[in-house]
Specification:
The chain is α+β, with helices and mostly antiparallel strands. It contains five helices and twelve strands. The strands form two sheets. Strands 1, 2, 3, 4, 5, 7, 10 and 12 form an eight-stranded antiparallel sheet that branches. A four-stranded antiparallel sheet has the order 6-11-8-9, with no helix packed on it. Helix 1 (3-31) crosses helix 3 and helix 2 packs across helix 3. Bound molecules: ligand QNM and manganese (II) ion (MN).
């Protein structure tokens, strides 16, 4: 690229970034969630998928929740393999494409955070996030029960989930994410298919109870949780206080 083309490309990228952030802010404010498709593009998305498949292949994923068994009797002891997870910093040598994904989501969130009412995304001031949680549902009917990510003000305000599942068909493979947004009509839900190169944002608190329906093929996703500065600081303070109290008791 000549400097002129590079400058033009930069401006295009900047404009795309601004538009995307405006879209995120608009959808989060209006619906409490936002879906961005073709987030990285086929080539880059496949590089992220290959690193996740490597992690899976190395056996680095650990069972994320207690393995659920049905009933007590021997005959109906139907153990459903649990979801498997691992935490990735993104700086690990074998995770540079996952690191690239994390950087792109960070860029969106920090820019969106700056864009609205005096630098806060709604009532939040986002100043940090968790590491990336790589999750795999092994496809033996594994599901995730209806839950709220952050029911008790632990500091997490936005959940960002990047899906990696090529040619996923929920009619055949299940694995639908069903969100029950607070404030929507009783019979209205948000059904999100976990399709390749899809990025989803939603408020992490009680506004968005959600469930992962049973998956019958291997289902991969990468999740980041973004922190609100004030809520997180308070949560840490409460945690430290509790720890000190416990130590006194002990
Ligand atoms: C594996 N897995 C999850 O899949 C979801 C979750 O809500 N996923 C939504 C989705 O994958 O569409 C979680 O929220 C979650 C929280 C703690 C540990 C593991 C977890
Ligand atoms: Mn969740």
């Amino acid at each position: 690229l000549t400097s002129g083309e590079a400058l033009l490309q930069h401006h295009i990228d900047e404009d795309v970034l601004e538009d995307t952030c405006a879209n995120i802010i608009q959808d989060l404010s209006a619906y409490g969630l936002c879906v961005l498709d073709n987030f990285l593009g086929q080539e880059q998305g496949l590089k992220v998928l290959s690193e996740v498949l490597e992690i899976k292949g190395r056996g680095d994923l650990r069972d994320g929740q207690l393995v659920s068994t049905r009933g007590k009797g021997k005959e109906d002891l139907k153990t459903i393999r649990s979801d498997q997870i691992c935490w990735v910093h993104g700086k690990e040598p074998e995770c540079e494409n996952i690191g690239y994904l994390i950087g792109r989501v960070d860029t969106l969130i920090t820019r969106a955070n700056k864009m609205v009412n005096n630098g806060k995304l709604k009532e939040y001031n986002i100043n940090g996030r968790t590491k990336a949680m790589v999750a795999c549902y092994p496809g033996s009917g594994t599901h995730y029960v209806k839950h709220v990510d952050n029911p008790n003000r632990d500091g997490r305000c936005i959940t960002a989930i990047y899906y990696l599942n090529r040619n996923w068909d929920v009619h055949r493979s299940g694995g639908l994410l069903r969100i029950f947004p607070e404030g929507w009509r009783e019979d209205k839900v948000a059904d999100i298919e976990p399709i390749f190169d899809r990025l989803l944002f939603f408020w992490s608190d009680r506004r968005n109870p959600h469930e992962v329906q049973p998956a019958y093929d291997t289902r991969y996703a990468i999740t980041l949780w973004y922190f609100d500065a004030v809520e997180r600081a308070e949560a840490v303070r409460q945690y430290d206080k509790a720890r000190v109290l416990n130590r006194d008791v002990l």
